[in-house]
Design brief:
The protein is of the alpha/beta class. It contains five helices and 13 strands. Strand 11 and strand 12 (161-162) form a beta hairpin. The protein starts with a helix and ends in a 13-residue tail after the last strand. Residues 1-17 and 194-203 have low confidence and may be disordered.
């Protein structure tokens, strides 16, 4: 029994030390989430949809992280509206930060991406998935450290359904949802929307 417990403890420690991806969520307004993704090995980080970025910047600076990328799912203000402020708050570091997205009208965009384009955050791999319908340039981001994987779905997918069809068709939404459904079933879905007091995020 003691030997079995030691093996389980050893396995847990090895898992924790082999992990390199850390994901934390921060609330924006009353009904959205922003995310901070950190590669623990390099201390490089990215943020997702920093609509109200002050708390994100405070955490980044307090922990001595290096922000390299702002991942924006779509152009609506409650997702992209804080991009410029985030850059301003990062001050002299802002010229080294890429603002990524799939819509050319997106606030402060510096790096437009296409479907299946690959990015890196330290040792983390990011795949950009074009998921049009809620907006024509909507992008979901799949992030992995080689052991665990998460997808940031913006306003394409909610636990209770999908986003409204503001700039697309039902056929486009079906195609976008099929892309997400085709991901590894162990992928953790990071969903940005909160309905009233209900937490619409999976941990």
């Amino acid at each position: 029994m003691r030997h079995h417990s030691l093996l389980k403890f050893s396995s847990l420690i090895n898992h924790l030390y082999s992990r390199t991806m850390k994901i934390r969520h921060f609330q924006a307004f009353s009904d959205n989430y922003m995310y901070l993704i950190t590669d623990d090995k390099s201390t490089e980080c990215a943020v997702v949809d920093p609509a109200e970025p002050d708390e994100l910047v405070k955490t980044i600076k307090k922990e001595g992280l290096k922000l390299t990328t702002i991942l924006t799912t779509h152009h609506h203000g409650d997702h992209a509206g804080g991009n410029s402020r985030m850059l301003d708050l990062m001050k002299e570091e802002k010229d080294q930060i890429k603002v990524v997205g799939g819509d050319k009208s997106l606030q402060a965009l510096t790096h437009p991406v296409k479907d299946n384009e690959k990015l890196k955050i330290g040792e983390l791999d990011i795949t950009c998935l074009s998921t049009p319908c809620h907006t024509s340039g909507h992008v979901c981001y799949v992030v992995t450290d080689g052991k665990e994987q998460a997808v940031f779905t913006g306003d394409t997918l909610f636990i209770g359904g999908c986003g409204k069809f503001f700039e697309g068709t039902a056929a486009q939404m079906q195609s976008s949802l099929q892309k997400l459904a085709a991901l590894d079933p162990n992928t953790v879905k990071r969903i940005s929307f909160i309905l009233k007091t209900n937490d619409y995020d999976l941990f």
